[in-house]
Specification:
Alpha/beta knot; 2 domains; 5-stranded parallel β-sheet; about 15% strand
């Protein structure tokens, strides 16, 4: 996969792209990551990328010329890659969106600044608009880093254990079950006996029940998109009948 980020601050990505999972993925040749300063495509004497909005109002708006030119340059002739606008007005980012994007061969992410984008960028250039939450950042760089990290870790060969991504929170539609490691006893707190039993079927059932309970307790809205068995529905009914919702 090839991922290009169009930004006014490419230096922000140096540490992120060169470290941890993203750095190793590049070393393995699984992904190519590049930060491109779209100011270089301004095409005017002062390298101006923003201007006052027509109709008045506060703030500055990103001009269309440098962003169109930068996208066309990095995409190459004849290519039509997925072009993603990082924007608080976009669709809320989810694990399913990450899984969808991980199947692409080429991604271009645009990081905005100032008051907003010239509307023609939205209408005639981008294929997706993504928001990482209902809040506003000073620019799209941090949001782009989050999207890139979540996509790259899903690529085959990136994670040491391929099943890690499969069982992550949201990948199954539910939040992930509790995890434990050594020691089995710590300050009087014990690991659940079922996890020490070696009985794989019981462990699987325990994890499913815990995952379902944690989702019901913390993110009940997610349950609408999960196919539940009759037994699992009864579990939820039991929790709901208990005033404290205890297992």
């Amino acid at each position: 996969m090839n991922i290009d980020v169009l930004t006014l601050f490419p230096e922000m990505f140096a540490g992120v792209f060169g470290s941890s999972i993203l750095g190793k993925a590049q070393e393995k040749g699984i992904v190519s990551l590049r930060a491109v300063n779209f100011r270089e495509f301004a095409g005017n004497k002062h390298n101006t990328v923003d201007d006052y909005p027509y109709g008045g109002g506060g703030g500055m708006v990103l001009k269309p010329e440098p962003i169109f030119s930068a996208v066309e340059h990095v995409a190459g002739e004849g290519e039509k890659p997925r072009v993603i606008l990082m924007c608080p007005q976009g669709e809320t980012y989810t694990q399913r969106k990450a899984e969808e994007l991980s199947k692409e061969q080429r991604l271009i992410l645009i990081c905005g600044h100032y008051e907003g984008y010239d509307e023609r960028i939205r209408e005639f250039l981008v294929t997706d608009e993504i928001s990482i939450g209902d809040y506003v950042l000073t620019g799209g760089e941090i949001a782009a880093m989050a999207v890139i990290d979540s996509v790259v870790r899903l690529l085959p060969g990136v994670l040491g254990n391929e099943r890690s991504a499969v069982t992550d929170s949201y990948s199954t539609g539910l939040l992930e079950y509790p995890q434990y490691t050594r020691p089995a006893e710590f300050r009087g707190w014990s690991v659940p006996d079922v996890l020490l039993s070696g009985h794989h079927e019981n462990v699987t059932q325990w994890r499913r029940r815990q995952s379902l309970y944690r989702t019901w307790k913390r993110r009940p809205d997610l349950l609408a998109g999960v196919e539940l068995t009759e037994r699992e529905r009864k579990w939820i009914e039991e929790w709901e009948s208990d005033g404290n919702g205890k297992m």
